């Protein structure tokens, strides 16, 4: 018997925990702790623990598939890649702007780098985006405006040094469990945890102060907390004076939000707003954590800027135990953004609209004619496909047929394409609609790097062979590029690609193999090989041109869709501990799927009683986009007037109900956290 322990990084959330995959005679049989890994010190959540289970599933994609007469037929790599290369060549020659590309936060930096380089240098468009658009796009856009850099300011470990941990719109216990461990470490030392969420989540249940409030009213709540802080003279005058601009406008604006006024908007009793404000402001070190409850709104970017206002007002930036911390979701969503899988930037957030940077990248890549026209975003791409303006699409490692808003519209858009390529590890709901399906290695079969939410760049290591003829994502994309006549994709390994990445990405320049091999790896920015990396941002100055943080005076705006007589409830959507997004992996993991095997709608006990709905009874939930049938979960853990559906389950897909019409003007985020809905008992 041959046993191998292969240290790697978890494929699920952005915490970036490390563990050993255990390979016995060529098969993965489990995971073992990697105690020296500083992120999680040997601890794991259930998804990490059972992450190996989907790898050897019999329904993994093992060979390329080509659709002929409506049916998939197995094909050789040569047939499939020649078909993709010739179709994409034909379409790009007509008009490269009619093609769109979805990259993947599940894939490595090397996969994403190769993908966007292909789109830019071979196709000649910037129509490349990925799920960050539906996730922390507003964090990137918002924090760039207030702090000059759109990433988490502090490390995970930093949170353990807080006196107050304020969670707003993050159910950290279920969604970032090993970050939650840091919050608990702080609590064990006497810190207070505050949670603002419309649901009494498992995180809220362990909080010292729970602030239940109405979805979509975050700005009013935060403004009101600032109103109290200024009225009580608890602002950090020195920090405001020396490190920020725009304070006077902010001060004037928040005067309009005394707690009694904010109570009318948010539903939070005025005294509770006061208590929350004082608790946060009086802490020596307060860290603020947020996630999708803040970003998934048409005012997502403004919500994010409001969180920065609160932190700057109280001087909670630049030290351990402080910071504004958007908890990035996917294992490598930070990296996919860093690598330029975004329609507005080359690797390292270098703008495609900046002529100097276009010239620099043209030189670095040795190509010609890079487009400086920003491309379309995820939801815009679907709208354009629906309208017939996008005619071809290549999707690597995303499943928009479950994860994008308004699935009926997405289905129509994808069916409207002349050509769709999907590269995945399973035949997902999206892959079913493809003309060509390309089988990729999963994370356990790959070498490369992931960048976690704390900007830590870590190795993943090949622990087992991929099934059948599956291949590395970067190798598939490179092969297509080469077949289309490019000679810029002669990569032989992930390591070779990383060397190119660091040569064009300033934040990664100082990272080499020897340094990344260490368990602690490196946090970007790491501009040269002597630089130690940067776990905490903005310690001395912000990343804005003048080094000052920018207060933004932001007024409350109501969500795009509000309850009315026909649709009297607010529907909000989100996640569960045991499942991951579209379920492609966790629903194929026996242990995880056993825990929760289908969806439900959470409804408050009193609302349910009025509608005559009993626990576990089937109900119909309806919005202006569509309807689903789903079992009810009657509970006091959600405020009245709001219902919640996890979006993991195809058979009762929350995104049949959500809308992609109204978007955040800065980040193009749809309002996934607020729709007007009706709910009725099924006869
Ligand atoms: N188990 C598991 N973990 C995951 C994921 C997963 O699918 N499963 N996905 C990962 C990804 S990609 C992401 S982005 C993160 C997301 O992590 P989270 O953002 O923590 O997860 P969500 O469930 O989407 O939403 C968080 C909370 O926002 C609350 N909320 C709803 N509306 C509002 C509002 O208007 N304001 C505020 N303040 N709160 C509101 C919801 O009740 C919910 O408790 O999780 C990551 N981790
Ligand atoms: N209603 C509602 N909708 C939401 C959200 C919400 O809160 N509410 N959240 C949004 C957010 S924050 C996010 S991040 C998105 C997530 O949306 P998606 O990214 O579409 O969701 P995933 O299920 O993670 O899809 C990843 C796909 O990659 C495949 N895959 C995994 N590993 C690999 C690999 O190594 N190579 C390749 N080629 N493929 C691989 C998986 O099989 C899966 O099909 O959903 C968004 N949609
Ligand atoms: S907390 Fe996140 S990274 Fe850590 S084991 Fe769980 S899913 Fe994986
Ligand atoms: Mo996400």
Automatic annotation (TrEMBL):
Residue ranges constituting the 4Fe-4S Mo/W bis-MGD-type domain according to the UniProt record: 3-59
Q: Keyword set for this entry?
A: 4Fe-4S, Iron, Iron-sulfur, Metal-binding, Molybdenum, Oxidoreductase
What's the name of the protein? formate dehydrogenase (coenzyme F420)
Q: Which GO terms describe its biological process?
A: formate metabolic process; respiratory electron transport chain
User: Which protein family is named in the record?
Assistant: Belongs to the prokaryotic molybdopterin-containing oxidoreductase family.
| Swiss-Prot/TrEMBL cofactor(s) | Zn(2+); Mo-bis(molybdopterin guanine dinucleotide); [4Fe-4S] cluster
Q: Into which EC class is this enzyme placed?
A: oxidoreductase
Q: InterPro entries from the xrefs?
A: Asp_de-COase-like_dom_sf, CT_Formate-Dh_H, Formate_Dh-H_N, Formate_DH_asu, MoPterin_dinucl-bd_dom, Mopterin_OxRdtase, Mopterin_OxRdtase_4Fe-4S_dom, Prok_molybdopt-oxidoreductase
- Catalyses which reaction? oxidized coenzyme F420-(gamma-L-Glu)(n) + formate + 2 H(+) = reduced coenzyme F420-(gamma-L-Glu)(n) + CO2
Q: What is this enzyme's EC? A: 1.17.98.3
Would the keyword Iron-sulfur be found if you checked this record's keyword annotation?
Answer: yes
Output the PANTHER family linked to this UniProt entry: FORMATE DEHYDROGENASE H, RESPIRATORY NITRATE REDUCTASE
Q: Which GO terms describe its molecular function?
A: 4 iron, 4 sulfur cluster binding; formate dehydrogenase (coenzyme F420) activity; formate dehydrogenase (NAD+) activity; metal ion binding; molybdopterin cofactor binding; NADH dehydrogenase activity
The family database entries (Pfam families) matched by this protein are listed as: Molybdop_Fe4S4 (PF04879), Molybdopterin (PF00384), Molydop_binding (PF01568)
Entry keyword Plastid: no
